[in-house]
Amino acid sequence: MKQRNWASICRRTNRLALHGVLLMGAWVVVLPYLWMITTSLKPLKLTFSPPYLLPVWFQWENYRAAWEAAPFARYYLNSAIMAAAIAIGQVLGGAMAAYAFDRLNFRFKEPLFLLFLGTLMIPFHLQVIPSYLIIQRLGWLNTYAGLIIPRLISAFGVFLMRQFFRTIPRELDEAAMIDGCGRLCILFRILLPVARPAVTALGLFAFLFGWNDFLWPLIVTTDPNMQTIQVGLATFYGKYGTQWVYLMAGTVTSTLPVLGLFILAQRWIIEGVTMGSLKE
């Protein structure tokens, strides 16, 4: 009996210790977001006072002032159009390329896939100059085409969709072919509905990538009417200082859309990433 009680006490102690560690980790993760929200509600005159977490009184007018400091409605529209187009393009392009690499047989299929996958190891900063020169010669500066087209295809998206397609039995393809379906019909009416978790995960990843991108929109846009929300937040960086209160207010509003999308789609994201990793 004493051994059983001791084992029960040890299990409870380990569980409490584990919960304590998890709570500490959660606090470390949540603290920057909490600081961002509370800073956005502090009075502007007290920004340079000694740091404190909770404001003495809440200045909700900071959000209105931040919204009126620049054409943020246009910034949000540009970011939404760019991120949505990138997400749709990467899902469709990744699905079609993944179908070819998984379902079709052609020469050098595996070496081409490995070569295509190897582009993930090329840093984006090495691609900036040639990409910019191409966009400039095409006359796509300050256009949606310049913001969207260079990032419509993602090697990660092709890899994710291909790994998920490999978990789908080929008997579904054969049954569809017997019923008269072609390749595109099989892809869009059979495989993509089954691969909804992978499609959701890839679409959300691509949307987040487009929404949070700063460097590429900064390079290819100089017209304020074509700039995105991340570039627009640089409005609060001045030569002699930074308006942290308004910057945090703008950051909070720019975070809410993607946070809502993640909360709604987190179940499909986890399922899409984990199911695609089960089959070698």
Concise overview:
This protein is mainly α and 280 residues long. Helices cover 71% and strands 0% of the residues.
Short key terms for the protein model shown above:
280 residues, MetI-like fold, 13 helices
Commentary on this structure:
The protein is flat. The chain is built from 13 helices and no strands. The chain has 280 residues and is mainly alpha-helical. The chain has two domains: 39 residues; 205 residues, Orthogonal Bundle (MetI-like fold).
Largest sheet: none
| Proportion in helices | over 70%
Structural class: mainly alpha
Q: What count of helical segments does DSSP give?
A: 13
N-to-C span: 48 Å
CATH topology-level name of the largest domain: MetI-like fold
Mean pLDDT: 84
CATH class division of the largest domain = Mainly Alpha
| SSE order | HHHHHHHHHHHHH
Q: Which outline best applies?
A: flat
Q: What is the annotated CATH architecture of the largest domain?
A: Orthogonal Bundle
Strand content: under 5%
What is the total number of structural domains? 2
Work out the radius of gyration.
Answer: 24 Å
Q: Tell me the name of the CATH homologous superfamily of the largest domain.
A: MetI-like
Number of strands: 0
Q: Could you name the ranges where pLDDT drops below 50 across 5 or more consecutive residues? A: 276-280
